[in-house]
Amino acid sequence: MLNSVLVALDGSEISERVIEILDNLALSKDAKVILCHVFPTPESEMELPADRPQPESPTFSYFHIEKQLRSYQEKLSIPTELELVTGDPAEEIIRLANIYKTDLIIIGSRGLMGMKRIVQGSVSSQVVEEANCSVLVVKPR
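-> structure tokens emitted (141 positions)
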């Protein structure tokens, strides 16, 4: 049985699938489940394309993400906690997993290939390599 699970969500379409997988896991009745989202710091963000709409404000984004995480909490049959942090996504996910001494990290994979993967990097790959616990990577269907 898993006693502590950290679920890293990025607000993308894969997040719904990650929540489905979490809801189907066999967890102990006293399991601690933490839903987390990492807001990248400006140093860790790639330059944003000029032809795409930019976020209106960090505050709007924070409240939007928090609302989304709370909706996931309502869908789940298990109690959860929320962690919204800022920093390098992979580093913060690993840091939170260490703080909570998690047995498992669940993270989505965007399925980046080729140059996109090289340029944008893979948070899930970095977490798999550096985490001190098991990592379940959920792929798109």
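Confidence is low (pLDDT under 50) at residues 48-54.
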